Amino acid sequence: MVILQINSHYNQGGAARIAACIHGQLLKEGQKSYVAYGRGKKIQEAEAAAQNLYCFDRPWEVYFSALVSRVIGINGWSNRAATRRLIAYMEKIRPDIVHLHALHGYYLNFPMLFGYLNEKQIPCVWTFHDCHAFTGNCGYYFDCEKWKTGCGSCPHIHNYPASQFFDFTHYMWKRKQKMFTEGDRKVIVTPSRWLTKEAEKSFFGRYPCVTISNGIDVKNTFFPRDKAACRKKHGYEEKERLVLGIAAGYGDPRKGAKYIIQLARDLEGEAKVILIGWEKKNDALLEGTKNIIPLPATDDLELLAEYYSMADVFVLPSLAENYATVTLESMACGTPVVGFAVGGIPEQLAEGRGIAVRAGDQRAFTRAVKRALSPESRLLCGKALAAVMEKENSTEKMTEAYMELYKGLLEKR
């Protein structure tokens, strides 16, 4: 079986890390697995070839596509040369299954890709990491339901993938509906029951829509470290109360930066708030805070796991989310999570794994974090929480479920 995954990035961010986990596990099990991606950290050509990885875009192509999207308002209709290279790669490796992930990100030409997949009748598994596939353009539609009837007059036109001037959301919705739903050999996967139900309401409802929870490496990467040792290593006192957050993308209001900044003010004198992935351009947000420790982004997963392990609680203030990988990583390291009750987050935090509160409710958010910091919180933590994640969200369990889908699609020939 030859399996090709396609995603915007490789091993950078949520969807990219999931694709990398599946790829690594498939290779470990002796499958012929490949990943094609459009952008992100460049991997040396020899190393990439040895790992069956292929980056098919050029940086200037991505920048040009982003410019077209923002000025004209059409996303996914550029990158012709890059998509030709991707198609040539598919002709070379001849995949039995194409596993699609996040296709937005200014790196693909949708009509070319789906023209090829539909013409060749290649079976597809498509994992939705957000809602972009069935909306006119939005990654998350918040309270708007125009995606059910055709989009247009988009209330979120300036959200990612942004358009500054023109609204082509109805045009893109119609084109997506036609080209994304040709052929019968597709299975739609989402990591959360919430998004599975939403996909079933969309034009993808003609296909099987199933839930496969995201998995992470709970054996070799994300597992509990010694909290006291990690704190000593990174310069924190054993008795300090530490709140951890991931600050990547805080320029996007969806990420809810203002809630974690206010949380820090509410916890002044009680706890420190560590934010990994901080960008200097957001420094103005820190004005008036004394207990926030901003740290740069890191690709060092060992370092990240140490910070997860030494925190008392991880916070996720996103106003829209699917099934957050960072939440899984924190819980696998033994640290419970507080977040807003949006998308699949309540599913992740059920049964004592964390606390989900009403989206945008600052007081409830702060109260929940204070409760999680209390010794009487009764939340799962440490090895007990990690054991639940090992049982439910391992890479092995996720990959086994995908393998069953792959085999089922091939049997329909």
Key phrases:
single chain, 413 residues, alpha/beta, seven-stranded parallel sheet
Question: What would you note in describing this structure?
Answer:
The chain has 413 residues and is α/β, with parallel strands linked by helices. The protein is 39% helix and 14% strand. It has 15 helices and 13 strands. It has helices at 14-28, 45-50, 59-72, 80-93, 110-120, 169-180, 193-201, 227-234, 257-266, 301-310, 325-332, 345-348, 362-373, 382-392, 395-410; strands at 2-7, 32-37, 53-55, 97-100, 124-127, 186-190, 209-211, 242-246, 272-276, 292-295, 313-316, 337-340, 354-357. α11 links the parallel β11 and β12. α8 packs across α10. The longest helix has 16 residues, at 395-410. It is globular and about 60 Å long.
Itemize the secondary structure elements and their pairings.
Elements: E1 2-7, H1 14-28, E2 32-37, H2 45-50, E3 53-55, H3 59-72, H4 80-93, E4 97-100, H5 110-120, E5 124-127, H6 169-180, E6 186-190, H7 193-201, E7 209-211, H8 227-234, E8 242-246, H9 257-266, E9 272-276, E10 292-295, H10 301-310, E11 313-316, H11 325-332, E12 337-340, H12 345-348, E13 354-357, H13 362-373, H14 382-392, H15 395-410
Parallel strand pairs: 1-2, 1-4, 2-3, 4-5, 5-6, 6-7, 8-9, 8-11, 9-10, 11-12, 12-13
Structural class estimated from helices and strands: alpha/beta
| Low-pLDDT runs | none
Integer average pLDDT: 94
Radius of gyration: 21 Å
Main sheet: strand order: 3-2-1-4-5-6-7
Outline type: globular
Care to count the β-strands? 13
Considering DSSP H and I runs of 4 or more, what fraction of the residues is helical? 25-40%
How large a portion of the residues is in β-strands, by DSSP E?
5-15%
- Total helical segments: 15
Note the main sheet: 7 strands, parallel
Order of helices and strands: EHEHEHHEHEHEHEHEHEEHEHEHEHHH
Q: Terminal Cα separation, in Å?
A: 14 Å
